[in-house]
Amino acid sequence: MRQDYQEAVMAAVELIAPGKVLAYGDIAELLGTGGPRQVGAVMARSGGAVPWWRVIRASGEPPACHGRTAWEHYAAENTPVRGTPADDGTGYRVRIAEARWQPSAADWIVLDGLRRGLGSAEADSEAAEQAPGGAPAGCGDAVGRSAAGPDRAMSVRHGEVEA
């Protein structure tokens, strides 16, 4: 996995306010590249350096195998949850519709910079992989960019942008 992508994921996670959460796919959407699995891989490798409990599954479940520790953070930050944890840390979910973080105007500026940085790294990578016929190798894998900006918010259901 590219170092710049890992750094961008970590920087995005650091922006999430206490008591708020995003799903793995939300982070990918904000960065304009990757997906839930790629974000999960970064969090599994390096997430201990950031508030990892603020990145959850789209269902509201806490990060796998960390439910008990995450619960302590959610309680301390007054994150809205339903249920209570069982001995193994399962049995509850974050009420993601209420807890989903919405970037401020200042946060969007940071996120836009992260997206631009990843976009120029992708452009450099694609140029290096240019096929002889002129089309980039793997061009069916192109990822569309989000039109989200400072005066737009992610929808609660799908991480889409709404005005």
TrEMBL record:
Transmembrane segments: none annotated. It comes from the Bacteria. InterPro entries: ATL_DNA_repair, MethylDNA_cys_MeTrfase_DNA-bd, MethylDNA_cys_MeTrfase_DNAb, WH-like_DNA-bd_sf. Residues 5-65 form the Methylated-DNA-[protein]-cysteine S-methyltransferase DNA binding domain. Keywords: DNA damage. Residues 128-144 have a biased composition (Low complexity). The keyword Cytoplasm does not apply. CDD domains: ATase (cd06445). Residues 121-163 are annotated as: Disordered. SUPFAM superfamilies: Methylated DNA-protein cysteine methyltransferase, C-terminal domain (SSF46767). This is MGMT family protein. It comes from Arthrobacter pullicola.
